[in-house]
# Entry
Amino acid sequence: MSAVLSLVEKKLASLPLPVQVVLPSGETAGPADARIRLKVKDNSTLRHLASGEAGTLGEDYVEGKFDFDGSMRDLMLLASSILPDSPIETAKGNWFTSMKRHWVSIQRHSQARDARQIQFHYDLSDEFYQLWLDPRRVYSCAYFREPDMTVAQAQEAKLDHICRKLRLHEGERFLDIGAGWGGLLLWAAENYGVDATGITLSKNQHAYVNRLIEEKGLSGRVRMTLLDYRELDEAWPYDKIASVGMFEHVGRAQLFEYFSKLRRLLRPGGLIMNHGITAGGVYNAEVGAGMGEFIEKYIFPGGELTHISNELAQIADAGLEDVDVENLRPHYARTLWAWSDALEARLDEARKTLKGENAERSLRAYRIYLAGCAMGFEHAWIALHQVLLQHKPAVGRRDELDHPADLAYPWRRDYIYR
# Structure
């Protein structure tokens, strides 16, 4: 037995599930009936396996340095079991690292660069996303209000959950920042009668949603614009604003500017729903063990995370008040597994929707990305927070119970669920 094979066998013996590894030499380690079979083509992959570099292993898979037989769920169980430490701990930095990240964040988020980064991800292929998202193409955390909901039902529940939290009323001016494929924009218009404006930096999403608006006969009171949030006109403030899945693209160094802009876009007493992924650790801007670097390289260039504590600090500094905070972390784990399972069931169709020389690399990257993020939410390395914000009104008249009469939300949060 070679020395490499001996080391591999020792590593495999420590894992919580049976794994077989086929070495570049053709030698095998582990049982033939293992649940996962890794076919390694480059010895560097063995080093990454031994050292627990989960993100680098993901890159090795994308670049074709190994293949595997077995389920994606078992592959993620393997990935989590080889980590030498919590990815939250490994992503912590000293003061110099923190200052460097802050400077990088400033440099990487110009309007032109943000547009390119959004188009890199969302303009990959509409047909590809359609294969594994729900019919409304809602590309954000679902809300499993009932345990037996499908992901499509849970996405509709999420859209309504947001509308209820915002207390949308007929005729209100509603802004959806980063409106995606129009799920929330159209739900709010059709079910709550609002005058709705959506913005996006994705050319594909812009064209798709405008076709839907036309088909549904909503052109009079729903519009979708290709626009950066920083360019929105502040002259006519909105009654309610939603930002769903866009906060992660803003950048840590731009958060004060972002929330300040939202405040200026909102009338006094109005409400904002900020729905976004947050870091599991206080000091890290990404998941450690190479996983953050993987997402930056292959999926979301320019994406940055912050802890909920920093988000709330930036909100307060910008002159907004947080009135309700809800962590939907388990819901996002379930959402991502539903997406991953749907993609895994249609891999051959997915290959046909992706064009160009990098098509196979893109498919491999998304397989790892969806399942890896599901694993991250399961382990609380990342979270998903809905934060309801108010542009604080000046206290004027009071009602018969001596409560301020101009509050935008009730005193009890059960209004969300009735």
User: Anything to note?
Assistant: The longest strand covers residues 266-279.
